Structures are given as structure tokens and as C-alpha cells.
Amino acid sequence: MTLQIRRITTSELAVGQPLQWDVHGESGGLLVKRGHVVASDTQMDLLLERGFIEVDDGSVPSTCQEPPSTLRMLNLARAQLHVALVDIFNGQATVREKLDDVVSLIADAIDVDQDVALACILLNQDVGQYATRHSVDTAVVAMVMARALKMPPERVASVALAALTMNVGMLQHHERFQHTAAPLAGADLAYLRGHPQAGVALLRAAGVDDEDWLACVLQHHENEDGTGYPHGKTSAQIGVAAKIVMLADRYCARVSARSYRKAMLPNAALRDILLEGKETVDAQLASVLLRELGIYPICTFVKLLSGEIGIVTRKGLNSTTPHVLSLINPWGGKLDVPLRRDTKIDRHAIREVLGGDQAALSFRLDQLWGRSASV
Q1: What is the DSSP string of 212-252?
Q2: CB within 8 A of 180, min separation 6: which ones?
Q3: In the chain, how many H helices and how many E strands?
Q4: What SS3 state is found at 4?
Q5: What number of other Cβ atoms are within 10 A of residue 295's Cβ?
Q6: Peptide bond preceding 196: is omega within 30 degrees of 0, i.e. cis?
Q7: Residue 70: which of 365, 302, 306, 361 has the closest Cα?
Q8: N or C: which end of the chain has fewer CB within 10 A?
Q9: Which of 254, 247, 203, 243 has its CA nearest to residue 91?
Q10: Per-residue pLDDT of the chain (375 residues; tens, 9 = 90+)
């Protein structure tokens, strides 16, 4: 075995990933030990400038292999869904395989990193058209809820398929509606309220015969108290899958920015949904949504009792004590290396929730979650 000393390369470094070797400076002094997690672009640049490693005959390290990325999977799911929805709208009857592929992508993305999948709902809103992006986001939340309820895999897939296709009946005007600040009226309102039936008709024409899937698409705007549409059904008449998709749909819509309004803070969006529980939503399922997302959902900007400002990146032991990455120190300076904080510890408890403009933070997703959030 012949060892050689050489500079570390870009392909051997990634923010959020542990080093595979001890890294030394040019004079031989140890810079960082094997296993150290690269915390920022600045640190990576310093290692590239100064770092040397000792390797066996220049062998290719395992880190050169591209790891699975939840972010990439969901971006691909959005692109593939757009094609499938256009096919359905245009009357093509060979889309089931395409939709199944999208569901598999979303399931794999959640398996790789559920927290990143939920983070993409808030921090990846610039990729793709709203119609497809919102449907994939809704499918992510619906799948998380369905799994939490221990539904069998085929039922989870059916719920996800319904979420992906819930709005195909208004695909022609959906993007325009997202840029319309005034309440819809006249023909637009009728079109909106008729999209569940239109969607079911399009899906049947495309060969879909899964009645649970179709019923979910038809009922995803029905309310517990009978005030929903298209048929004004009440609680016992609405399927559980439709209630799941409705909750996921409402949460994702509230936290999405529109051209005429800012996105709601995720904790405020959940609070609104819970307050509706007495009338329009199933209170038990709303509690499942809260349990899975937490009082402080992933990507909530927070100020800690220590004075640090950071972002919720992982669920904690319970819904009130998530894990936070602090990015701003108590004196308002940006931290070179984000600090992991467990908010169940008193001094790192959450003091208040901040809006994105208050937090004034900028970062890439992979700086917070590592390679599972790489582009």
C-alpha cells in the first residue's frame, strides 16, 4: 500500500457532511479531524485553500458517489407531474404509470429525509408552476399524515394520487387564479367550484377506476359542517382520505406566497386550521397534522431565550421542543458555523416566532440539512 499526500478537492467536500480523513495544513499541522462536519461554504473554501489529505494511491473516496437528495427528487416529481397533468387535461389515457412514478419519487424523498421534504414546501417555492408545486407539496403532507395513521401502503398511495390530481379540473386557469387578489366571481367562481367534478371526469376518461381516489378528488373541498362544495356534504359523508387531502391542501396554500400577499408563518397557518376545527375540519385529523408538523413546523424562524436567531430544522422529542440551527448570535452577528440547539434545554427554549423579514437570513438548503437537500 502506497500513501500519498495531496490537496483535498471540491468533490471530496460538501457542506453538512463529515470528512473522510484528517485534514492537515501545508506544514503538517492538523486542521480538522476525520468526522468533522463541514458547516459552511466559508469553511469549505478554507479547507480547499489550505487542506491536504493522506490517501491510498489516490483512491476515489466514497463521498464522490452522488448521494440521494430529497430536494432533487421533489423537483423531479414536480416536473414529471406537470407532464402527467397536461396529458390528463388533454384527454390522454396512458398516464397512470407516470403518476405512479411521481408517487414513488415523493415516497422515496420522504424516506430519505422527511424534514427536508417538509422544508421544501416553504423554502423551494421558486421551482415550477404553482399548480404542480402545490399539488406535490400537498401530497407530501398528505402522505406524512396517512403514514402516521398507519394506513396500508396501497391506501397511502391512493391518498397521494388524489392530492396530485385534486386540481386537474382547473388546470387551464389555476396559474391565473394565483395572481388574482380579488375574490373570484361569475364564471371564474363557477369554474372554481366545479373543478372537483371536472377533475373526476378527466380522471375517468384517463382510465382511473380507483373509487377511493376519485371520491377523494371529488370531496377535497367539502367541510365538516356542510358549507363546502360541490355537494355540501357533512362529516360522516366525507371520506377520511378527502379530509386528509383537504387539511394538507389548506396548510400548503396558506404557507405559499402569492403575487399579492406574503406567505403565512407556518405556525400561524396551523393555528388557523385548528381554530377552524370546531366547524369545517375534522378535529382529530387536525391534531394528527399538528403532531406530525409540530407547534413550530420545519422552517419556522425563531428567536431563542439566549438571544440567538435560527430556523427549525428537525422535530424534537415533542411538538413544542424542536431542534434549531442558530444562524445569528445574541448580538446580531452572523455565525460562521451554525450552532445546533435543542430547545428542550431552558436557555435554548424558543422565545418567539419571527417572520422571514425579521430574521433576515439567507442560506442554501444544503447548508442546513446537508446532502439530502443538495440541488
Answers
A1: HHHHHHHHTT--TBS-SSSS--BGGGS-HHHHHHHHHHHHH
A2: 188, 260
A3: 15, 9
A4: strand
A5: 20
A6: no
A7: 365
A8: N
A9: 203
A10: 455 677 787 667 777 777 787 888 766 777 777 877 777 666 776 777 777 787 764 444 444 445 688 999 999 999 999 999 999 999 887 889 999 999 999 999 999 999 999 999 999 988 888 899 999 999 999 999 999 999 999 999 999 999 999 999 998 888 787 777 778 888 888 888 999 999 999 999 999 999 999 999 999 999 999 999 999 999 999 999 999 999 999 999 999 987 767 889 999 999 999 887 668 899 999 999 999 999 999 999 999 999 999 999 998 888 889 999 999 999 999 888 888 899 999 999 999 999 877 666 777 888 888 888 887
Residue 105: closest CA among 142, 65, 75, 66: 75
What letter represents residue 72's amino acid? R
**List of E strands, 40-146:** 52-56
169-172: which pairs have CB atoms within 8 A and are 24 or more residues apart?
A: 169/194, 169/195, 169/196, 169/197, 169/198, 169/199, 169/200, 169/201, 169/202, 169/217, 170/195, 170/198, 170/199, 171/85, 171/86, 171/89, 171/131, 172/89
Instruction: Give me the count of residues in the chain.
Output: 375
pTM for this entry: 0.81
Torsion of CA 79, 83, 89, 91, to 10 degrees: -160
* C-alpha distances in Å from residue 60, one per residue of 8, 50, 66, 161: 12, 20, 13, 41
